[in-house]
Amino acid sequence: MTNRIVYFDNIRTVLMLAIVLLHVSCVFATKGYWTVIRSPDTTWLANISFIFSESFAVAGFFVISGYFAMITLEKYPSKVFLKKRFIRIGIPLIITAITLNSIQEWILVKSGWVETFDLYKYIMQGEWKHHLWFLINLIIYGVFIAIFKKYIFDLDSKLAKKLTNVSGVAILFILPLLTVIALIIGKIFRFDGVVNSSDFLMYLPFFLLGILVKNNQSILNKFEKISLKVSLPIIIFGSVLVDIFREESLNIVALTLMIYVNFLVKWFAVALFFKFSRNYLVKRNYFSIVNGNASYIIYLVHHLWIVVYAIILMHYGIGGISGFISLFLLTIVTSLMMYKVIVSLQSKWEARL
Prior knowledge:
The chain is mainly alpha-helical. The chain contains 16 helices and no strands.
């Protein structure tokens, strides 16, 4: 099957920019969204940009990852699929963990942001992973769908039939329940370290939706028919509500409700993002092709540069809105420059072979 959704290639650029914005926002936000490094000179703009990007960026990436994984799985036997996944995801994960993330940890220790360095905890308990948790999840998801390939294909068609007469709004209200159930399971069978049970289970439904969408694009059509009068109030008021209670101590009922609302916001934000993408990101252009190819490299390297530039900006007393904007632009530009260098080195290497 070759019913490829063209704009899915393009939206990786937007999602990658949103991921960088998310991490940059954590540095300058007034709340403790991120504990790696934080500027004492915060800004409200970082709070807003965090809420905005966090609502759809990570979840959206898991959706398109499931979609592209399904394309590869349909083309190749499971063994070949897993080999390609290891080359595409496993090797960059290992190289980044050993090089860039180790350099980042050294910088954090030397600058005082990490008080003590424990090699055992760093390696065995997964303190090295930082942003690479996303790739770890993708590897596990890939192994899962490769093993259960036949059942995935059967379930794919059965679910599509059952969802035929269900409205897009109803689907989006049901999907967060899967996350709540998944997190309950994750709490019962809790494990943390290189793989975190909560991270692994809470984003699995998004990945599975991407798989389902591959051959059932009518599901996206359902989402695109949802009125802004419905989606925007849910996204805005839900985001504000979650942010207010983010750092509060809640009882089990209130916590469960907040988790549901949090992922309700994510599902509606993802649906709205894909609606926007279909309307405005369908056409390929030079910008989208260049940055689409670069988005993976940006993902791998941006975390280090955020730490490096954040320390430099704080050293020179540059914070607030100016520091926030400067950190975002410096990270993007430097990451793109690294992409250009890597592509150049790759071309020279291939020319020698």
